[in-house]
Design goal:
With about 190 residues, the chain is of the alpha+beta class. It contains five helices and nine strands. The relative contact order is 0.21.
């Protein structure tokens, strides 16, 4: 009887370990991540507006129908990126994700406190290579260090009423995600998609 209980307990323990390992490994081995699904719609280092959330639109899961969404698939191999996102009338947010869908930074219009959210996105090596200018303070220039050379920037503008969706979409069409001219590029170890 004890042998049977030990066998059952060992089976449950082994099943739990296999389940845990497979759940934790799935994001790393999945080939249909957000970056890959957006590849046909968004060129690298450009902003692309996504279709509005609808039951027949399955591009991205859990999209809120009250938000207009734009994305930028970035690659920092050619240098840092200057991101500019005009603030919409109600609420605007910008979220940064690595190539493997790990969120590492987010900002909204309330914390930016400006009419346009402007920031520089670069790797830590590119940040360290910047000249030290004593006249430029952290309040003058927002720099975000990306843990990887490729990733995804998601911009959202809220439309509290369906009639205001066109206005929210219009604010995101003026967003830009461009490689900064005059910045030193790092050696490309990641192919540009």
């Amino acid at each position: 009887m004890i042998r049977l209980l030990l066998t059952i307990l060992a089976g449950i323990l082994l099943g739990g370990i296999v389940h845990l390992v497979s759940v934790l490994a799935l994001p790393m081995i999945a080939n249909e991540d957000a970056y890959s699904r957006l590849k046909p719609l968004a060129k690298v280092n450009t902003v692309a507006q996504l279709a509005l959330a609808a039951p027949d639109n399955k591009l991205m899961p859990y999209m809120d129908p009250a938000f207009a969404v734009a994305v930028c698939r970035y690659n920092l191999s050619n240098g840092p990126i200057k991101l500019k996102v005009p603030v919409s009338q109600d609420y605007t947010s910008v979220s940064f994700y690595t190539r493997s869908d790990l969120a590492y930074y987010a900002i909204n219009d309330r914390s930016a406190g400006k009419e346009v959210i402007v920031l520089d996105l670069m790797t830590e090596a590119q940040h360290n290579a910047l000249p030290q200018d004593e006249n430029v303070t952290a309040a003058d220039r927002l720099i975000v260090d990306s843990p990887t050379k490729t990733g995804l920037i998601v911009m959202r503008a809220m439309a509290p009423e369906p009639g205001l969706m066109a206005q929210a979409q219009a604010s995101l069409t003026r967003a830009s995600c461009t490689v900064q001219a005059g910045q030193a590029a790092q050696p490309a170890d990641t192919p540009q998609d």
